[in-house]
UniProtKB/TrEMBL annotation:
<feature type="transmembrane region" description="Helical">
    <location>
        <begin position="7"/>
        <end position="26"/>
    </location>
</feature>
<keyword id="KW-0812">Transmembrane</keyword>
<dbReference type="GO" id="GO:0004222">
    <property type="term" value="F:metalloendopeptidase activity"/>
</dbReference>
<dbReference type="InterPro" id="IPR016047">
    <property type="entry name" value="M23ase_b-sheet_dom"/>
</dbReference>
<feature type="transmembrane region" description="Helical">
    <location>
        <begin position="63"/>
        <end position="81"/>
    </location>
</feature>
<keyword id="KW-0472">Membrane</keyword>
<feature type="transmembrane region" description="Helical">
    <location>
        <begin position="32"/>
        <end position="51"/>
    </location>
</feature>
<dbReference type="InterPro" id="IPR050570">
    <property type="entry name" value="Cell_wall_metabolism_enzyme"/>
</dbReference>
<keyword id="KW-1133">Transmembrane helix</keyword>
<dbReference type="InterPro" id="IPR011055">
    <property type="entry name" value="Dup_hybrid_motif"/>
</dbReference>
<dbReference type="Pfam" id="PF01551">
    <property type="entry name" value="Peptidase_M23"/>
</dbReference>
<protein>
    <submittedName>
        <fullName>Peptidase M23</fullName>
    </submittedName>
</protein>
<feature type="domain" description="M23ase beta-sheet core">
    <location>
        <begin position="155"/>
        <end position="253"/>
    </location>
</feature>
Amino acid sequence: MKTFIKVIKKLYWLGLLGFVGSFLDIPSLELFYLFFLLALVDFVLSIIIVLRMEDTNETVSDIKFLFQNLGMLIGIPIIYLRNRFHLPDAKSYEPKILYSLPFQGSWNVANGGVDRETSHSWNICNQRYAYDFYIEINGKTFCDSGKSVTDYYCYGKPILAPADGIVVEIKNLFNDTPISDEPEALCSASDIRGNYIIIKHSEHEYSTIAHIKKDSFYVKVGDHVQRGQQIACCGNSGNTSEPHIHFQIQQGKSFLLSASLPICFADIINHTTCKTSPYIARGHIVENKK
Ligand SMILES: [Zn+2]
């Protein structure tokens, strides 16, 4: 493709002949303006090359990160259009699958819920109903100084398949993002998800689990997974302030172009509320029934 771009770069200078055509009033020469369109082709192909490059240097990584953020902005109106301006919500959406929590034992819901107040990020509709989970003991999520990812109780813990399905995408590229001195999310990867897995559970229900520890995957693309099977380990890759599991269900495989769906859980214990609801929310402590 690089040779093709080199040829294009030479050809679009022919567009200058269009100015000669305009100056001499020769309409057939004015057609040479069309060669300027090749500049656009050159631009698009160059972007594709950068996006396909491995993150070998910081510039490529920064450009990919920028494009993902732009993609997220462009994705929002596309998601609204695809859903005819009626995004799925907890009242109207009929789930195809009831999910298990993607971990063993009791974890805290650090972020997420099915209403605007508790939502992971209400206005970012591809992550509206996502959840972040971590382990808290005596009000703290870490022991020792908390400056190393390994200080965190959930770091390295097994991640489980939330339901039966087929693995359709895995990224296993990024080292953990170091813990920041400030309580803010950092991202040392070109993808906010860091290492992630996407599992197809039904025609229009896919799960994404993100921030996975590099090289901790137990499955590969194409594998059939069963609910509760270990698929990877919790890490701190991508855009994150501390190790946690980001879990969401979405309408399609594309993270940027799929609406996030409210997640109905089944066979879980909610230690925080005695209300029997399939939904969980920020502040709850939850676990799967054994
Ligand atoms: Zn998250």
